[in-house]
Amino acid sequence: MQFVDLLSIQSRDGALIHNESVACYSLALLRYIKQKSNSTPTSASSSPLSENIIKELEEMSEEDLVVMALLHDLGKHAIEPSLLNHPALDNTQSKLLSSQMSDHTSSALEQLELERYTSFLTPFYQFQLSRGSQCKIHAISFLLAICDMYDALTAPKLYKGKPWSVQGVLEEIVRLAYHSDMKPIITHFIELMKPEEKEIKLTSSKATKMFK
């Protein structure tokens, strides 16, 4: 497989910093959710997680989560930058791009002998390009996706405009997950990340290149 030089998309240092940030956010969120689920009875929680989601999160080791966070962009490295950063893909192009990134991810993980992560990382791109709508996804994939979105929109990047405010990003994440069974994960993320004395409201969509 031929990989696109990351310098044509963003600096290597920038890519590493982003992946490390996603790993830190993901690890903090996983720990927070586990702590909350162990300390608060499900019936008493304002945002209860389903038993299946709790089971998936409980079974995920912190080491595996960090590895997946560091590799979450693996499928993008073989994609032409002009396509990857296109501001307005139609549905057919989005599906094709999602399929290509999933295939590249599967192939790369196989070469690295890390196939156990395939089922978590390949749906990640489907969620990205659908912006969360009507997409079946693992709880871990969803957790990684929102942490990726948070860092992508709040961190300064040379190839993007002005970073979003923390409040603005959290409101957009809420909008995406409003009708999702993963909404409790969002609630926990907001509890963990929201600025003090700020109210997070449901908003209309604002992002056009959210996850790239």
Could you walk me through the main structural features you see in this protein, from its secondary elements to its overall organization?
- With 212 residues, this protein is mainly alpha-helical.
- The protein is 58% helix and 0% strand.
- The protein contains 9 helices and no strands.
- α1 (12-39) packs across α9, α7 runs antiparallel to α8 (166-176) and α8 runs antiparallel to α9 (183-193).
- The longest helix is centred in the first third of the chain and has 28 residues, at 12-39.
- The radius of gyration is 17 Å and the shape is globular.
- It starts with 11 loop residues before the first helix and ends in a 19-residue tail after the last helix.
Task: Please give the structural blueprint.
Elements: H1 12-39, H2 51-59, H3 62-70, H4 81-84, H5 91-111, H6 118-130, H7 139-154, H8 166-176, H9 183-193
Helix pairs in contact: 1-3, 1-7, 1-9, 5-6, 6-7, 7-8, 8-9
